[in-house]
């Protein structure tokens, strides 16, 4: 109780509240603008948080995360383009509601459902985070290694349809992280004798390069091709549904929130998967499934409560095990590390007040997000009209200064320029970025735990299978990898069977 | 000249996979060789060389697989297999290629690098204003001086206020002169 009061006092300090408010606003704005996601916003905000104390810094990032998850629904509903991939399922019915003149109630319902999803997942998170951390308390290096490997395998397997490309991405991330001075032996690896590479590739530099720079390039490409932006309606506001209306969807919201939390807790999944799962669940369980796709309010309620519930779910492995499941939580992890807070079971012993503080900050963020959406929607819909290429110019400035401010080093700005170009190439080659980031984040720990375990066992490899949790996680990882390989093999076989000499059609040929 | 383009457009996904696989394979082999030659294996057990080396070899294996998949897809010329399959998230329309793409990629990279260079030498304020103006005028080809100048001034003032004043972050003042 004492701890809770202490956390409350720290979290409700004026500068922390202000930081959460700014973060929520930034998140909602970035979330609402198609193409800009909350991941980009978080990557750009992180360097700024260095100069802040830990509570406002975490508050700023949590606000951005939660605001972004919610803000995506605005453009999904108003112009039929999801502001973030997580809001893609909301387009199906949300945009139809706008076309039928019910935009206000769709926006209001989306906000309400988001908040409910967030709160339900917060409750689930509070209960399970403690439980999981207590289980993980006894983990030694072997168990931790097995767990990390399992996390990485689900990330590689689930973040993209092609398992091969997912694996390639994960390995690329792990490889990049071995550059620099080896933490255990102090040996230089792949530094080519240069001083700048001794510290290795900075994680935040990589994040900015991977997420923000390709967005800038994309915006320029679209500008070059003269692609028109869709105009948002001028007079909109968000209208909260009546309590009776909310109560009528209460059961659906609860179920979809639980779906979202569960999906979010699995590393490598995330908002888009949760939202589509919830949407199809709502349609299947509806008594009038034919209304879906034609402006059914349930089609907004389900994905919006699910994608916000992902935030709580994703925090479970992050806080209790130190495993981030998506780029957003990976950024959160790096911010926590910078402030000396190492997520994992030890955090619950050493800084229990931080954990309580995070719960309070999440609640605070939802209060702000709901308020911003209800009061400020008229204003920030105008932002949707700012041309994408001009926003991109602003993003260039934020990338450049963000990279510089990490270590006050110009070398980092050059790195962002070069790595950003490479990242764009990877996107064009359809190598998914999420496993790269998580490889970068988890790589050092993976190697450290593996080698420490072998040092402890004097080189005996059976340390990894002699403990039950370790063997279990390794088995699960093998299952994930094996299942994916089986699935792609089956796909190849099916394709071979279907391979009949088809007419050489030219109907799919794009213009030269 | 038209032949390879036509062959590529029949199954662009397979061609892309083949190219990606080949590039990554070369990279993986070069990486592994560098690791083998430059990193010491360590005195006992799993030393500092093992992880980077095995990761490089795994990447070589995976990229060889990707290369093979792409080549097989190319050999199978049926156009029907190419599009629907696993092309879920690609943006609508044909991808931009050739000179315009190279120009955009080059200018974004150059702008970014120039921004870093200028920030150190000329300071945050001058560098930001210059980069915004140059980007709009040259890279985007917006030839409306008032708008370009206003945007440059606006973005510079906004970021200067946000980062420097509100957050109190360090803004480089430039090493070329001692003005501020």
Keywords:
heterodimer, A: 512 residues, mainly alpha, 2 strands, 72% helix, 1% strand, disordered C terminus, B: 180 residues, 2 domains, flat, disordered N terminus
Order of helices and strands of chain A: HHHHHHHHEEHHHHHHHHHHHHH
Total beta-strand segments of chain A: 2
Silhouette of chain B: flat
Strand order of the largest sheet of chain A: 1-2
Please give the largest β-sheet of chain A: 2 strands, antiparallel
**Spatial separation of the terminal alpha carbons of chain A:** 68 Å
- Specify the structural class of chain A: mainly alpha
Number of domains of chain A: 1
**Structural class computed from helices and strand pairing of chain B:** mainly alpha
Proportion in helices of chain B:
55-70%
Give the largest interface: A-B, 76 and 81 residues
Secondary-structure element order of chain B, as H and E? HHHHHH
Characterization of the model:
The complex is a heterodimer of chains A (512) and B (180). Chain A has one domain. In chain A, 72% of the residues lie in helices and 1% in strands. Chain A is mainly α. Chain A starts with a helix and ends in a 14-residue tail after the last helix. Chain B is mainly alpha-helical. Chain B is built from 6 helices and no strands. Chain B starts with a helix and ends in a 14-residue tail after the last helix. Classes of the chains: A mainly alpha (512), B mainly alpha (180). At the A-B interface, helix 8, strand 2, helix 9, helix 17 and helix 18 of A face helix 1, helix 2, helix 3, helix 4 and helix 5 of B.
């Amino acid at each position: 109780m004492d701890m809770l009061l202490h956390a409350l006092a720290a979290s409700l300090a004026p500068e922390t509240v202000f930081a959460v408010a700014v973060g929520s606003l930034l998140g909602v704005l970035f979330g609402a603008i198609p193409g800009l996601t909350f991941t980009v916003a978080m990557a750009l905000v992180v360097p700024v948080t260095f100069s802040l104390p830990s509570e406002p810094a975490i508050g700023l990032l949590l606000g951005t995360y939660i605001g972004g998850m919610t803000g995506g629904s605005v453009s999904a509903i108003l112009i039929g383009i999801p502001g973030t991939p997580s809001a893609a399922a909301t387009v199906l019915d949300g945009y139809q509601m706008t076309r039928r003149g019910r935009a206000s109630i769709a926006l209001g319902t989306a906000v309400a459902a988001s908040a409910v999803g967030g709160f339900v997942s917060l409750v689930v998170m509070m209960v399970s985070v403690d439980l999981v951390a207590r289980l993980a308390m006894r983990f030694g290096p072997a168990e931790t290694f097995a767990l990390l490997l399992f996390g990485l395998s689900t990330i590689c397997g689930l973040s993209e349809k092609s398992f091969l490309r997912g694996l390639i991405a994960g390995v690329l991330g792990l490889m990049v992280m071995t550059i620099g001075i080896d933490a255990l032996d102090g040996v230089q690896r792949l530094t080519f004798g240069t001083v700048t590479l001794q510290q290795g590739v900075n994680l935040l530099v990589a994040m900015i390069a991977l997420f923000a720079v390709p967005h800038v390039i994309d915006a320029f490409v679209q500008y070059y091709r003269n692609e028109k932006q869709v105009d948002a309606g001028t007079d909109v506001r968000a209208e909260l549904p009546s309590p009776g209306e909310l109560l009528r969807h209460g059961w659906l919201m609860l179920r979809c929130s639980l779906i979202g939390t569960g999906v979010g807790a699995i590393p490598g999944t995330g908002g888009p998967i949760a939202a589509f799962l919830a949407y199809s669940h709502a349609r299947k369980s509806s008594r009038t499934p034919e209304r879906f796709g034609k402006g059914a309010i349930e089609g907004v309620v389900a994905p919006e409560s699910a994608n916000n519930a992902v935030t709580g779910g994703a925090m479970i492995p992050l806080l209790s095990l130190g495993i981030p499941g998506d780029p957003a939580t990976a950024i959160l992890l790096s911010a926590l590390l910078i402030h000396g807070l190492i997520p994992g079971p030890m955090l619950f012993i050493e800084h229990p007040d931080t954990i309580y503080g995070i719960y309070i900050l999440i609640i605070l963020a939802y209060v702000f997000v709901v308020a911003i959406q209800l009061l400020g929607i008229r204003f920030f819909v105008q932002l949707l009209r700012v041309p994408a290429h001009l926003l991109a110019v602003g993003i260039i400035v934020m990338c450049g200064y963000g990279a510089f401010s990490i270590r006050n080093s110009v070398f980092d700005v050059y790195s962002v320029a070069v790595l950003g170009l490479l990242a764009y190439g990877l996107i064009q080659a359809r190598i998914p970025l999420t496993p790269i980031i998580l490889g970068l984040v988890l790589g050092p720990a993976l190697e450290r735990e593996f080698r420490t375990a072998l040092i402890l066992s004097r080189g005996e490899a059976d340390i990894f299978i002699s403990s039950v949790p370790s063997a279990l996680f390794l088995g699960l990882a093998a299952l994930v990898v094996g299942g994916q390989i089986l699935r792609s093999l089956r796909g190849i076989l099916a394709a071979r069977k279907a391979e009949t000499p088809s007419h050489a059609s030219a109907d799919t040929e794009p213009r030269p | 000249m038209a032949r390879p383009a036509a062959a590529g457009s029949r199954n662009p996904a397979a061609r892309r996979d083949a190219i990606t696989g080949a590039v990554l394979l070369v990279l993986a082999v070069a990486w592994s060789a560098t690791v083998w030659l430059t990193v010491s294996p360590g005195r006992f057990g799993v030393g500092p060389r093992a992880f980077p080396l095995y990761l490089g070899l795994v990447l070589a294996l995976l990229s060889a697989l990707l290369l093979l998949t792409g080549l097989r897809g190319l050999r199978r010329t049926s156009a029907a297999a190419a599009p629907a399959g696993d092309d879920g998230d690609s943006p609508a329309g044909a991808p931009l290629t050739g000179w315009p793409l190279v120009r955009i990629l080059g200018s974004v990279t150059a702008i970014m690098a120039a921004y870093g260079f200028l920030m150190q030498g000329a300071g945050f304020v001058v560098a930001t204003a210059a980069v915004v103006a140059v980007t709009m005028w040259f890279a985007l080809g917006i030839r409306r001086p008032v708008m370009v100048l206003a945007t440059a001034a606006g973005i510079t003032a906004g970021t200067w206020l946000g980062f420097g004043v509100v957050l109190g972050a360090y803004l480089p003042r430039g090493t070329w002169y001692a003005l501020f």
